[in-house]
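Deliverable D5.2: sample structural annotation.
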Amino acid sequence: MGNKSFAICVNNLGYEASLERWKVYKVIEDAKAVSYHQIRVIDESGEDYLFPNDFFVVVDLPKTVKEAMIASKSP
């Protein structure tokens, strides 16, 4: 996973308040989480949390889309 990765939520069972299915989330690199088959994303609260890997599909977005998404989420 490279810097500024994104993933689409494909399952939110048990995390309905934290995750929206089919929404794109920013992924925070976390090698320890990967070793536990988890992924760290910034959820609906605006904080980063761990979720099961199989809840997400990591996507490779074009550079212009990544830049626009990062800019839109900045304070």
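Annotation notes: The chain has two helices and five strands. The chain has a mean pLDDT of 89.
The annotation will be released with the project's public dataset once the embargo ends.
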